[in-house]
Give the backbone structure.
Amino acid sequence: MSVRAAAVAGRFYPADAEELTAQLRALLVAVPSAVRTKLDGKQLAIPKAIIAPHAGYAYSGPVAASAYSALQQVPAGSIERVVLLGPCHRVPLNGFALADATAFDTPLGVVPVDGGVDDLLRLDCVSVSSAAHKLEHCLEVQLPFLTHVLATSFTIVPLVVGETTTEQARAVLQSVWGGPETLIVVSSDLSHFHSYDEAHSLDSETSRAIEELASERIRPEQACGRTVIQGLLDEARTRGMIASILDVRNSGDTAGNRQEVVGYGAYMICERG
C-alpha cells in the first residue's frame, strides 16, 4: 500500500492525536451561535458540498469548523466517499491531479483513497501526480475535520487543482458527483493580504455571489479555489440546488493582526427543501 505521508502535521495542526482531537472539539464547540441558528433552520438539509478554508488551524480553523458543523447533523455512515478539491500551491500543474497513493496518513488514522476513478481518469484534464500532493496542505488540513466529524470509515478522491477552466471543473464534478453517499469538499481561502476593511468588503461580495450561485461574479483575486467554486456553483444552479453562507471571517478576526489579512469562508450547498 502506497500511503501519502502527512506533510503539515505539527505546523498547520497538531501532530499528536490527543492534542488534535482536543483542538477539533474546541473549534466545533466554539462555532458561533449564529451559524448554529442557520443550521437549525435547515435541519433537513443534508449538504451535498461544503466550501472550507485551508490555512493553519490557528488562522482558519474557527471558520472551517463552521463548515464542518454542517455535517454534524448527517446520519452516521451515510457519507461513504468524500471528493476533495483544492488549489495546488507547491508545483506547476495544468488541470487536476489525483494522488498516486492508496491512502493518506493523518494523526487520527489512515484514510483510504477511493479506487473507483476510471471515469475520472478518462478526462483529458485529469492526471496522476505524487509531486502535486507530496507537500500540498489544502486537502490535508480537511482530513482531521472529516475524520472527527464523520466518525466512520470513508474513502477520499483527492484532487489538487492547477491551471484549469470552469468548464473542466464542472466536467470533473459531474464525473464524481455520485449520490447521497458522496460529499464534495472544496478547499479555498478568500481574499489575500488586504487591509481588514478591504478584505471584509471583498469577501462579502464573494459570499453574496456564492449564495446567489452567480459564478461569473467571482474574480481571480477573490478566491484561490475560484475555478472549482465556479464549476460547483454552475452545477448546483443546473441541479436546482441552494447555497448558504455559514461563516465569513478573516485572519484579523481569528489571529489578531489586521494589517494584511487573509479571508476565510464557510458555505454549504444542498438540495432545495
